[in-house]
Amino acid sequence: MTGIGLKRLFSAVIIACGLTSGGLALAQQAQTPSRAQPQAQAPAAPQAPVPQQPASPPAAASDTTPAANVSAETKAARAKLDGFKADLDQKELALQGRVLSDVELQNLRQQIEPIIADIRTVIDEQAPKLEASRQRLSQLGPKPASGQPEESADVAKDRADREAAVAELDETQRLGRALLVQAEQLSAQIGDLRRAGFARALFEQSDGLLSPNLWMNVIQAIPRELRAQRVVLSDAFDQLQRNATLGALFVLGLAIGAAVALYIGRRSIAPRLVRRDPAITDPSRRSRLMAAIGVLVLGAGPAIAGSWIVWVAFDAADVVPPRLEQVVKSLLGGLAFIAFVRALIDAILAPDHPSWRLIPVRDASAARIMRFSVTLATVMVVGKVIEAFNKAIAAALPITVITRAVFALAMALLFAELLRRFATRESQDEACLGPYVPQEVDIGGPVRSLGWFVVAVVIGSVLGGYTALASFVIEQAVSISTIIAMLILGIALADEFIGGSLRGQSRLATTLQANTGIRRRSLEQIGVLASGIARLALITIAILLVLLPWGIESTDVMTSLRALFFGFNVGDVTISLSSILIAALLFAAGFTITRIIQRWLDNTFLPATDLDAGLRNSIRTAAGYVGVITAGVVAFTYLGLSLERLTIVAGALSVGIGFGLQSIVNNFISGLILLWERPIRVGDLVVVGDGEGYVRRINVRSTEIQTFDRSTLIVPNSNLISGIVRNRVRNDRVGRVLVSVPVPRATDPDLMADIMRRAALAHREVMSEPNPRVLFKKVTENTIDFDLVCFVDDIDAAARVSSDLYFEVFRGLRKAGIGVPAPSTPEPEEAEEAKADESKKTGDEDETLTLLKDKSRA
What we know:
Blueprint: H1 2-31, H2 56-63, H3 65-96, H4 102-138, H5 153-202, H6 212-243, H7 246-273, H8 285-317, H9 322-349, H10 363-392, H11 397-431, H12 446-464, H13 467-499, H14 507-516, H15 520-547, H16 554-566, E1 568-570, E2 573-575, H17 577-605, H18 613-638, H19 643-659, H20 662-677, E3 685-688, E4 691-698, E5 702-707, E6 712-716, H21 717-722, E7 725-727, E8 735-744, H22 749-762, E9 773-779, E10 783-792, H23 798-815, H24 828-857
Antiparallel strand pairs: 1-2, 3-4, 3-7, 4-5, 5-6, 8-10, 9-10
């Protein structure tokens, strides 16, 4: 008993331990799904659904593969946007920190512009994906409403995946647009800061030129400046001794010699290579422009090249200290600028060659402008070099202020003297005897007033202590004058070489006309348009160059132009000039294709058929209507105007049609009826009211009828539909000829009928069926009248056949000895009635004239 009990007890303990361990394993598996596949499980584990789970993940993975792909692409785009956001936040913190200089602000803005472009790229890349996802989602239709049968599990899962993809892409788009707004705001903020700093520096006030305090500060600063100059010159001499090897000095000597040779020799090079013959009193405009370009290039090019050569040599030899490099740059650039100004004035005004001037001025005025321009440029260059030297030696503020003030005042006085000389010359001309005939371009009026205003501003600013403003204004006056001179030369070149090349019998115009078939008038219009575009581009560039020193950069202008071109919002409406232009191009392309198809139908296809001219015109016109309507639908669809919106627009237009456009629509619909029903066709001989002629064209609103006197009768289409129209060739082109002949009463009727019948039968164009007939029309007191009725197969020949028959009948009457009676005189009673009617008309006319006179007096 004891052994058996112990065995049973031991077996129960083993079973209990096994069950306990199995229960613990199942509990651990339920708590940690990631460890759902234990190496050893209890015997009861096969009854659990765990072994069936590995079969479902492949299907789920295959169903969610597109969403995973979209999510990966979206994550990559968002990673880029996150990087852009971090960079923008860092730059925004930099702006909110310390006050940055203009150079630092400019560098910061140059770093933001690529970020803006990259953000736009991300947004543009996500836009088609978002649109495609929305289209795929729209194919599933709306969700079932409450009470309707639910969707299947597959459709619901597909809808959820597509909605998730649309949500991800839409969120990425919104994040990108928010970052784009932030970047554009930062760029605009930097621009505002730069302009504010520019205005603050420009209107900063110091002591005026006549202020004793300024001169006392200058006198006190002179010893310090002399010591600074000795230090800078000593450093420059030491560096020259260290780096001035024989090879470096040889290279510098060659560079300086070459520059001097180029600078001095340019005056003799230009006249030899560009001949402006004074014997030619009236050279062509193209010859003058070519000579002006040659003078400008050969006059300024060698000086610019010489300055560049010297600078390269100095930079390579390293004989100038870094602080004096700007002084050397200012000196070399100033020499090139003086040469450029002289060459530009010589190219445009040609002081020594009056007949080669681009602008008509007197010889004295041209020489005066040349002298003053070169003098102004020289004074400006000297001032710039001294300012650079003051900056190199870190001159005191009073020295810098008085230097800039003195040179600004000197330039203003030179400018005032130039204006005074022109005013004196004009007053002398007006004092001369005889009529004053101006021989030059007038620089008086607003231009001279503006010049005196600039002089007054500069002098007032110098005396009032606004030295920076004075220097800026006078430098802008010089630069704007140079830009205007270049603009005049550029516009003249554009007009001559773009517009003039397509005008007249030029070689380019003749070649284009021969190879493309474009008419000469069309080529001239293309030349005018191209010249206008070139003018607009040159004026835009000139305006940007003028506004550049004022803190308005090309980046600001390009941003505005980009917004204008690619779309800007007015309320809830987005207006995009690019979309409008592309839609216009699509419509023009469709219209052109329609015209090509119509021409092919007219010249190739329809003439090969047996259709009449009227039906061919209807087919051609219908093809034109279909093509134009199709082109319009394509253009409106590109603009985003769906058929529903067009229906709303059409409904709004119906109100206008009911009031003001009723007649136009009536004529249009009548034109469609004419083309479809074809009661009249092109080429038909019709009678409309008092007019008769051939139908030449059935247009949208009216029909053109050419009368026999070669004039054109324009008839609204509604009159042809609702009015009475006589179509002589509606069924066929057989025409009726009527010949009426009166003969004396004593003439034999049978003989007369025989003469007229034989005349008709003898004519080859008179139809034998139906037979010609002679009708005894009437008997009067002195004559008997006969009518000859016959037919011709083409109504166009009716008038000619009628004339031939008259000739033939009168020949037969002459041979038979039958005379044609003279016109009968009216009876006395009829004559009296005619006189009474005439007197009554005269009385009515006199009464009308009397009434008109009374009204005119009133």
